[in-house]
């Protein structure tokens, strides 16, 4: 299996400059992240707010410039590309955004929004424009009659389908899905997930799926990366594997089953995700971790693999 | 829930039709808008509806009180006040509208560039623009008068400069806000070049509040034009201007008050109408927050 | 304790809520579950007497609280009840606290207003309640401002305010939606403990069927401004009678097997302005027959629950 995307030691530091009334601070939004995305696979990135999962998505697409690390897409070094070369390459790597409500220009009709990829890439669609629009809308399960509607005239789920049609118009190989269902109703979320499954099979797509919802990630993805404060703390090559990192275990324990028979006594983890500014040395999870030892507060654990299942912990389960 | 009650509230508020038709929906909008339409028509068709030549003097009939045939009386040279007020509308409206059009064009260009590119360029532009704001309008006008002499050209440029900062700041604020919208990120991710983002997405979405503020500024421009005319820095005789008419009327304030009252009333009513209609338009477009945000 | 019968709410000519009924005993947790626009938050607002704030009014039905009908209650009496015997926890802890006031005085105000306590008694009570909510160093927290605290901590403060006047019924409107999953687990556990320790009645409004399964004794499922099914939680999940309830449960990944397949419910949640005639769910229902488009179905008894469907129990 060849890798469509190879990420090595990717880091992003945001610096807020100091001034007369505040001190300069540095935030490691993404810290030394490495992983492979094989062709045709679905890799999920899961974590709570502020863990850097959305920044990671934007770093991979170079919507944000990384501070450090390498990105190889289809064998090519992405970070060596000029802005013009990068613009061309974007046709191959698209993104579906979290908020469908603001993902389409409110002044654009649906057909204009769906045809925009061809305009900006200066490409001619294979068929006549109106036929292409109808084909794309049909592909994402929308009535081609909606082509002349404006975004405010359609529902959130329909908007997200338009977002997917736009992303797929140029037939990319990679689709980065940044919480594509987080702002939708449950019944619509399931529709979109089922559409994405079908499109992956039909078009042979590779997905990077970003989500805060562990049960959804387990359902939808082939592999899982768990992030905590900018780092990958565990990489599960199979979604059925038990957690080895205490944080992953906590996440799994905080997710309820939709079945009252599986009701259980929750023993929640105390505390919350600390501020990502100026992190202390050692494991970022140490302060909340029930298994923390002295070494956890001094040395940052590295992600080490044991037959594909990698965990960054001094004292894994 | 909040979204639903919001929908219901809008529905009940009659949220249908184009913004302009909604602005005309309230009785306030109807009166103010109706007056403005009438005023513009009057200015356009001035040559056909004025009863007398605005410049024709009749020294034997100076300072005649309102009556027949001079409905609003005559000034000290016996010129018909009504005809001069009607022609004055032409001067006031065209000077103010031209000035604001120049101001909007320059302001949007500067503001959009500053908001889009940011960094040092933005700071430089905004500093210079803010500097123009710190000068009193009259002082700016005096500078132009000193350079190109009194007249409507100086007035136009003075008004244009006086409102430049407002449009630049408003446009910049819109662009900065829009840049954070997901659809801009999505379009960049399609591989769009900067000019596509700016011309096809940012500017078209920024234009509505700028137009409304521009419309309100026309009202202020009329006042500024009248002020400059009053001081003799604006329209030169015999061109009729509301400000200049009031200025010449001060000499006979007690002898023939109609010479100063009628142009004064027209200025006041026009400015009130512009502001009321502008408010209705802001309500109809639902952009109050965006205008306040600049 | 609380009994709502055939509640109907109108905003001008729009009727976003009709035919909502449920009842709640002491020490019970009732879940009101539905998607956006289903009217679940509006139900909470009706119970709290907050409808006039947004221009709505109750046009039919009754809300009985401890033998008293709240629908005709004048505002001054309601004000005594609200925040007193009827506590409310709102959805967004980020905006339900006054950013300019310290935490202590904000929580104190409830006990001073409703229990007539003086400043020092109220503060002692505040510290005690913050302690029972497992907030570390409650004394110090009182001198903090909301912006100095995390989202989960703010939600605890909001809960403390709701508890300060010793309510009998607590209405929680999506109390964990704005929070991260690990923090959500903390808050759910906390609410669970409170119900047990204080014999509270809790109305939990949520869109999340998993949270309902974890915490509630009874469930009301709402769709398009109507209660379409209600009953004990086991019955609702084991043998849902209404096709919408069945489909909604089918929309959540269970993670039990690799063959699991989510399909979603075709179509979209209807808008308040054009609720379908007849059964509100019929345009999206795979079992719909002619009668569903014309007649509003009545509740049909099934075990301890009821479903408003012409063909209850039919498999989707």
Automatic annotation (TrEMBL), chain A:
Q: Could you tell me one molecular function GO term of this UniProt entry?
A: ATP binding
Cell compartments where the protein resides = Cell inner membrane
Check the record and name the Pfam families matching this protein: ABC_tran, oligo_HPY
Q: Which residues form the ABC transporter domain?
A: 5-254
Tell me the membrane topology, using the record's own terms. Peripheral membrane protein
Keyword ATP-binding assigned:
yes
Q: Which PROSITE patterns match?
A: ABC_TRANSPORTER_1, ABC_TRANSPORTER_2
- The answer on whether this UniProt entry bears the keyword Heme reads no
The alphabetized UniProt keywords are: ATP-binding, Nucleotide-binding, Transport
User: Which protein, by its recorded name, is this?
Assistant: ATP-binding cassette domain-containing protein
Q: Which organism is it from?
A: Parasulfitobacter algicola
TrEMBL record, chain B:
Q: What is the lineage of its organism?
A: Bacteria, Pseudomonadati, Pseudomonadota, Alphaproteobacteria, Rhodobacterales
UniProt cross-references to Gene3D superfamilies, sorted A to Z = MetI-like (1.10.3720.10)
Q: What is this protein called?
A: ABC transporter permease
Record-linked InterPro entries = BP-dependent_transpt_permease, MetI-like, MetI-like_sf, OppC_N
Topology in the membrane? Multi-pass membrane protein
On the tree of life, the source organism's domain of life is Bacteria
Q: Which UniProt keywords apply?
A: Cell membrane, Membrane, Transmembrane, Transmembrane helix, Transport
What is the source species? Parasulfitobacter algicola
Q: Which family does it belong to?
A: Belongs to the binding-protein-dependent transport system permease family.
Its subcellular locations are: Cell membrane
List, for all copies, the residue spans of the domain called ABC transmembrane type-1: 89-278
Q: List residues traversing the bilayer.
A: 27-49, 93-118, 138-165, 206-235, 255-278
TrEMBL record, chain C:
Q: Name one GO molecular function term.
A: ATP binding
* Keyword Membrane attached: yes
Q: Where in the cell is it found?
A: Cell inner membrane
What is the protein name for this chain? ABC transporter ATP-binding protein
Entry-linked InterPro entries: AAA+_ATPase, ABC_Ni/Peptide_Import, ABC_transporter-like_ATP-bd, ABC_transporter-like_CS, Oligopep_ABC_C, P-loop_NTPase
Instruction: Give me the segments passing through the membrane.
Output: none
Tell me, in one coarse class, where this protein mainly resides. membrane
Report the domain of life of the source organism: Bacteria
Cite the ABC transporter domain residue spans from the record. Answer: 2-249
Membrane topology, record value: Peripheral membrane protein
What does the UniProt keyword field contain?
ATP-binding, Cell membrane, Membrane, Nucleotide-binding, Transport
Give the protein family: Belongs to the ABC transporter superfamily.
Database matches in SMART domains = AAA (SM00382)
Listed Pfam families: ABC_tran (PF00005), oligo_HPY (PF08352)
Q: Answer whether the UniProt record assigns the keyword Cytoplasm to this protein.
A: no
């Amino acid at each position: 299996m060849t890798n469509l995307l190879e990420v090595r030691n990717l880091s992003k530091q945001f610096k807020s400059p100091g001034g007369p009334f505040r001190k300069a601070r540095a935030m490691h939004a993404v810290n030394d992240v490495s992983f492979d995305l094989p062709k045709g696979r679905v890799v999920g990135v899961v974590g709570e707010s502020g863990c850097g999962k959305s920044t990671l998505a934007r770093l991979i697409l170079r919507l944000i410039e990384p501070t450090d690390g390498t990105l190889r897409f289809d064998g090519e070094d992405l970070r060596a590309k000029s802005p013009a070369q990068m613009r061309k390459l974007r046709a191959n790597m698209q993104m579906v955004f979290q908020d469908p409500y603001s993902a389409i220009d409110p002044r654009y009709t649906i057909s204009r929004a769906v045809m925009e990829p061809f305009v900006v890439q200066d490409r001619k669609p294979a068929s006549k424009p109106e036929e292409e629009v109808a084909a794309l809308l049909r592909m994402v399960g929308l009535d081609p009659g909606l082509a002349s509607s404006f975004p405010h005239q359609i529902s959130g789920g329909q908007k997200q389908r338009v977002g997917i049609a736009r992303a797929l118009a140029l037939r990319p190989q990679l689709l980065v899905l940044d919480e594509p269902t987080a702002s939708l109703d449950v019944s619509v979320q399931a529709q979109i997930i089922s559409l994405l499954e079908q499109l992956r099979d039909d078009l042979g797509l590779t997905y990077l799926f970003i989500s805060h919802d562990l049960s959804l990630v387990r359902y939808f993805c082939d592999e899982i990366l768990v992030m905590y404060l900018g780092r990958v703390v565990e990489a599960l090559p199979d979604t059925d594997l038990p957690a080895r990192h205490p944080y992953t275990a906590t996440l799994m324990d905080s997710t309820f089953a939709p079945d009252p028979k599986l009701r259980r006594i929750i023993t929640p983890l105390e505390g919350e995700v600390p501020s990502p500014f100026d992190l202390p040395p050692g494991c970022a999870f140490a302060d909340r971790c029930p298994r923390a030892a002295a070494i956890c507060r001094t040395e940052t654990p590295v992600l080490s693999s044991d037959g594909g299942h990698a965990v960054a912990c001094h004292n894994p389960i | 829930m909040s979204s639903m009650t919001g929908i219901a509230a809008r529905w009940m508020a009659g949220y249908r039709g184009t913004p302009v038709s909604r602005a005309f929906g309230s009785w306030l909008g109807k009166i103010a808008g109706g007056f403005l339409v009438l005023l513009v028509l009057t200015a356009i068709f001035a040559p056909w509806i004025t009863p007398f030549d605005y410049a024709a003097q009749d020294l034997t009939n100076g300072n005649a009180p309102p009556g027949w045939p001079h409905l609003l009386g005559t000034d000290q040279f016996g010129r018909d006040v009504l005809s001069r007020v009607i022609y004055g509308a032409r001067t006031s409206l065209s000077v103010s509208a031209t000035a604001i059009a120049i101001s909007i064009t320059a302001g949007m260009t500067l503001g959009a560039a500053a908001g889009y590119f940011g960094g040092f360029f933005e700071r430089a532009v905004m500093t210079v623009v803010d500097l123009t704001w710190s000068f009193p309008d009259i002082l700016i006008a005096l500078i132009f008068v000193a350079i190109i002499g009194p007249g409507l050209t100086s007035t136009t440029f003075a008004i244009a400069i006086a409102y430049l900062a407002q449009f630049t700041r408003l446009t910049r604020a819109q662009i900065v806000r829009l840049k954070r919208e997901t659809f801009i990120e999505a379009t960049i991710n399609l591989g769009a070049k900067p000019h596509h983002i700016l011309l096809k997405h940012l500017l078209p979405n920024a234009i509505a509040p700028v137009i409304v503020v521009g419309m309100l500024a026309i009202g202020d421009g009329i006042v500024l034009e009248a002020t400059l005319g009053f001081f003799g820095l604006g329209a030169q005789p015999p061109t009729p201007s509301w400000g200049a008419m009031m200025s010449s009327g001060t000499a006979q304030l007690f002898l023939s008050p109609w010479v100063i009252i009628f142009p004064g009333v027209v200025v006041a009513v026009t400015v009130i109408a512009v502001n009321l209609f502008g408010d209705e338009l802001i309500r109809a477009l639902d952009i109050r927050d965006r205008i306040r945000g600049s | 304790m609380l009994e709502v019968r055939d509640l109907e709410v109108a905003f001008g000519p729009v009727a976003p809520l009709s035919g909502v009924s449920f009842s709640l005993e002491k020490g019970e947790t009732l879940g009101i579950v539905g998607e956006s626009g289903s009217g679940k938050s509006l139900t909470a607002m009706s119970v709290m007497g907050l409808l006039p704030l947004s221009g709505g009014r109750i046009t039919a039905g009754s809300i009985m609280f401890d033998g008293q009908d709240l629908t005709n209650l004048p505002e001054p009496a309601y004000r005594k009840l609200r925040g007193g015997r009827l506590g409310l926890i709102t959805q967004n802890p980020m905006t339900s606290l006054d950013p300019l006031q310290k935490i202590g005085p904000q929580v104190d105000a409830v006990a001073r207003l409703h229990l007539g306590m003086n400043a020092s008694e109220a503060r002692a009570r505040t510290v005690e309640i913050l302690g029972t909510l497992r907030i570390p160093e409650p004394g110090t927290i009182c001198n903090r401002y909301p912006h100095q605290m995390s989202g989960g901590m703010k939600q605890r403060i909001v809960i403390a305010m709701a508890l300060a006047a010793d309510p009998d019924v607590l209405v929680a409107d999506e109390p964990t939606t704005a929070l991260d999953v690990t923090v959500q687990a903390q808050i759910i556990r906390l609410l669970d403990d409170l119900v047990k320790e204080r014999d509270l009645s809790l109305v939990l409004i949520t869109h999340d069927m998993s949270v309902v399964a974890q915490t509630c004794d009874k469930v009301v499922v709402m769709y398009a401004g109507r209660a379409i099914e209600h009953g004990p939680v086991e019955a609702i999940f084991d043998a849902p009678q209404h096709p919408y309830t069945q489909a909604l449960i089918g929309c959540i990944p269970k993670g039990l097997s690799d063959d699991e397949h989510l399909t979603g419910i075709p179509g979209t949640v209807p808008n308040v302005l054009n609720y379908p005639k007849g059964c509100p769910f019929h345009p999206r229902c795979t079992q719909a027959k002619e009668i569903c488009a014309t007649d509003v179905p009545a509740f049909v008894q099934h075990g301890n629950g009821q479903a408003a469907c012409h063909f209850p129990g039919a498999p989707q």
